[in-house]
Every structure is written in structure tokens, then in C-alpha cells.
Write a structure and sequence with these properties.
The complex is a heterodimer of chains A (114) and B (115). Chain A is 0% helix and 53% strand. In chain A, the strands form two sheets. In chain A, strands 2, 4, 5, 6, 9, 10 and 11 form a seven-stranded mixed β-sheet that branches. A four-stranded antiparallel β-sheet of chain A has the order 1-3-8-7, with no helix packed on it. Chain A is globular and about 35 Å long. Chain B is an all-beta fold and 115 residues long. Chain B is 0% helix and 56% strand. In chain B, a hairpin with a 5-residue loop joins strand 9 and strand 10. Chain B starts with a strand and ends with a strand. The chains are: A mainly beta (114), B mainly beta (115). At the A-B interface, strand 5, strand 6 and strand 10 of A face strand 4, strand 5 and strand 10 of B.
Amino acid sequence: DSGVTQTPKHLITATGQRVTLRCSPRSGDLSVYWYQQSLDQGLQFLIQYYNGEERAKGNILERFSAQQFPDLHSELNLSSLELGDSALYFCASSDISGSTDTQYFGPGTRLTVL
Amino acid sequence: GESVGLHLPTLSVQEGDNSIINCAYSNSASDYFIWYKQESGKGPQFIIDIRSNMDKRQGQRVTVLLNKTVKHLSLQIAATQPGDSAVYFCAENTMTNFGNEKLTFGTGTRLTIIP
């Protein structure tokens, strides 16, 4: 168990809908990262927050957004969902900002868009 | 463009034997590399990392080798056990289009340990 929690574990929704994925980092970790894992794209970095502020951005779609709250949990919002958004979404956390710090991954949320 | 790739998508090894998983990276400016293990239904789990000022780093039953000349990374697992069966990813730190650092993951190698 990495100490990172994600909810829900599974999510099934329809195209055009909006969903919110939630992540709680390990106790004491200030950085939260979001990744998308699909069969054809592998594990792709989406966005990073550090202590409530956006720190790094990957190839995140404009339909996707995230935020980190004062209690350090983070939410990833996916809107106008398309079939191609079906994937595993992972959250990771680390205790210091920067990609060179060990990232601990949560169990993921499996999103299915029908 | 950026890419971190693996030479072998699948690898089967007899239990007790040693295994080697290889990874090629394309960004010569990368200075940090990590190996992750992902078991079915779980998130990636950190195994070992290495910085570019090192050629070799050892952990418990695992060794990572870095060859910067040919931009090659390998993970050696000694005395493999059934619990080693998983997908293994290499990752390197790269720059995003926005000028920040991020981890870029390879496509993964599935390691199967044969009892």
C-alpha cells in the first residue's frame, strides 16, 4: 500500500458527461501528479500540483482540469467525455516538488466512457 | 519527439533465474531515471532509481545499469520469484512543452516468471 488513495475505483459514464476523480496524497506529501494510462498511449503525465498551486503541465486536454485543495487532496475533472478518454487515471504524490523525487502511485480509477 | 522505449515487450524467465529488462531513452539531457513495477490491477510501484552521475545502483535483488553513451538503461532482477511477474516501466525526467520537468514513461515490458 503506497498510502495514496483514489476514489472511485471504477467509473462508467456516457459520452458528453463530466466526472470528477479524487486523490488523497500520502501523509506529508505536498505534490500531487495525475497520469493517464491507456493501451495505446501508455502512462502519460497530465499535470502536477504543489501545495495548492499548479507546478507542471503535460499534454493535458483543455477539457480536463485539476485542482489541489488546502488539505492537499486533489481532484481531476474530465468534461465533455469522449470514448477515447476511457483509461486508467493514476494519482501519485511526492514530498518535494520536482520530477526527481520518488513518486508514489495510488491504485487508480478506471474510467469507461460508453 | 520524446520517447522512452523498451526493446522487449514480453519476457519469460524461469523462477530462480536472473532477468534483465532493457530500456532505450532518447533525451540525452535526462539526468534522472526510475524503474517502476506494475502488477495487475495496481498502480506503478517504485523499484529503484539512478541519477546520470552514476553507472550502477543496487537494491535488494535489483540492479539498475545506466549507459549514457548509448542512452540505455537496464534493470536486473536476481533470483526471480513468482511475485516478480508484472509489467516493468522505465521513466526519465524530461521537459514539458511548458518548460517544467516531468517523468516520461516507457511502454513497459511484461515479465512472467515460470514456476
